Amino acid sequence: MTGLAGLQPPPVASEADDGGPNGDDGTRLVRSNPLRLLLVVAALVALGVFLGWPVFVLVVALILSIFLHEVGHFVVARRSGMLVTEFFIGMGPRIWSFRRGEVEYGLKAFPLGAYVRIIGMSNLEEVDPEDEDRTYRSKNYPRRLATVLAGPAVNIAIGVVLFFGLFALAGVNDPDDWSVGRVVEGGAAEAAGLEPGDQVVAVNGEPVGSWDAFTGQLDNLAGQQVELQVQRGGETLTVTAALGWALTAAGVEALPTSPQLPVGSRVLSDGDQSEPSYAEFTELLAGTGVATIDFESGGGLYRAELPLPVEMPSEGARGFLGVSRAGETAQPVSVVGAAGEAVGMVGEVAGSMFDFLGRLFSPSGLVRYGQLIVGAASDDSASTSSTDGRVPLQPLEGSPPPPSGAPAAQVTSEEEAEIRPLSLIGIVQVGDQLSGVSGIESIVFLLAMVNIFLGLVNLLPLLPFDGGHATVATYEAIRGAIARRPYRVDVSKLMPVTYVVVFILLGVGLSAMYLDIVDPVRIVP
Hints:
Largest sheet: 4 strands, antiparallel
Number of strands: 17
Number of helices: 16
Oligomer: single chain
Low-confidence stretches: 1-7, 9-30, 382-387, 405-411
Structural class: alpha+beta
Shape: elongated
């Protein structure tokens, strides 16, 4: 069983007993290569030195989570009287291993999971008759079920414990309790008189919830007058703001600038020293000749002379108020409250996971995901070729060089995040960015999420997931109870479906790694 998908490689007897001295404690080295092991350790140290401690801690913690998943399988299998012959971290060629008693422990080349090999997982595996009573298939239903569910249970337990510790020590944030942190100079909020510390409680009479809900309300109101109900101290004020607009991912993509601007950039001037509305901007770019446009991005000012016409999409702009959110203040909770919040997170992650899988594997989701991969490939190709047809961005008024690498530099869009899975590389990228915002707390939160997600994914009732083995064992128990004799599934009949699941897993996993390399996830603007 693996920590990621429940796969179990076939036994390779020639590799399990091919040399190495026996120790007094029964230890036997098996194709041990100290140089390879040294390279693995050096690679981990290099992560800490060159990428910083958050990346190092996150990588080690993820490996430990996968290791503990397998420890769950290993311990329960051994206590159930099953013969375990291998316990490896990673897949592929063996890097380093040793034998202690009947079990070979070690590392393999590719960090794609881990596995514990239990003999006789199905009727397809040939086992020495002397060991038949120690096979997985020979054990009763409770022991088999406990063995296959132990790994996911460990991951879910790790996630709950991490959340409990986080909530008990740091408190719980209320997503609806937020305030204005910064007012952008020259924005609609400044003109309306908003100040840091203000709490916006309603937009056009509609109550405001979380920060994301608030910005979502504004997105569709670009260029419009909005009425904001604001609490300042103990006083409730009503102010009117004329929303500006900022570029969405679609708007950025349509502009032929090099490099592309990050999402959220603003158009400050159309060449006549006036800030146009999005409709005016779209009309201007639909003309002929050359348009001189001034942009604001990340506090810097940039100019581009765009050859016309440029077709701008209708969804190229979103509302811009000109405020940022103040950091949330966590409210302390009791031990019981922290435990309840931690257990509740399992349900939240489960709901998010099934929602995500439903979107990804829907016909439209698969089409969008394919477009995302093709788009990343074309962007990667374009980045290594000529920039013919693209107009350079010129810094103005002492601004720094323009932000580069748009699609990598821009914040991953919400639409993309809805159907984009993350590989280990992407998880580390997200953790690295989050650590710069809230430090160790964000690392702990991410680890808890990943552990619960890993445990729940492994419960999917399909082979080769752990949940698939549990489903088979449950079906066998029901059939056996009805027939009043032991019943075992012919796994060969399930192999076509298993191969399809494995093919999908490999496809999603490899494509996610590819996207994380050529189009890294960026969540912190």
